[in-house]
Amino acid sequence: MYRDVSSCNSYNYGDALYWDARYIQEAGSFDWYQRYTALRPFVRRYIPTSSRVLMVGCGNAVMSEDMVKDGYEEIMNIDISSVAIEMMRRKHEHIHQLQYMQMDVKDMSFFPDESFDCVIDKGTLDSLMCGTDAPISASRMLGEVSRLLKPGGIYMLITYGDPTVRMPHLGRPVYNWKVVLYVIPRPGFQKPAGSTSSAKSYLEPVPTTEKGLLLPGFVLEDPDSHYIYICKKMDETAELGNIPAYPLTSDVL
What we know:
Protein name: Methyltransferase type 11 domain-containing protein
InterPro entries: Lys/N-term_MeTrsfase_sf (IPR051419), Methyltransf_11 (IPR013216), SAM-dependent_MTases_sf (IPR029063)
Pfam families: Methyltransf_11
Family: Belongs to the methyltransferase superfamily.
Distance between the termini: 38 Å
Domain Methyltransferase type: 54-156
């Protein structure tokens, strides 16, 4: 539950000043890890288009815009950088489905409890895990995410962190989350010659231990794969089995 030292450089990715400076220098759009086209089967599988969605650490990514084009009706985007928020607010001022607010994910008290059906995080927890107070920051952020989710709501985390470094945070009993794991190769990855695995195997949940860890002997075709954690907020009426059982496909409607 310490910092992701091996994956961090000297920058403090949890610092608003760092991100303000970066967005001033890099005014174009940039999506961390995966574009919406790759994530769409998972988003459409677990998040109805009528959901009220919170996109944390939106930055200058186009994922929210792509989701609106795909039929999503309400996405609140937040970021610690006022530069990014103002830039995106101007860019999307005519898209009424998108709202933008400058906010720290560690304190989202502006929103009442159980305000959202879904929270999407593409790299924000990772950024905090590179900060100097990583365990405390992660705990504060995830506590807020849990508070904001409605019963049965989904926290979708897209991360470079494998279960050994993410499940100690996601698996805390206080959140009461049921977690399903997917592993997806990085964009542009080419399978090794002679590979016999299914072309769509990444659309299937990865079997895990009771603690949410990868089973012994599990082999990553792409050593730099990304992990998608589907965390469902459980209560006495919300069971993971209630999620429709149809298989994922790359052309989910």
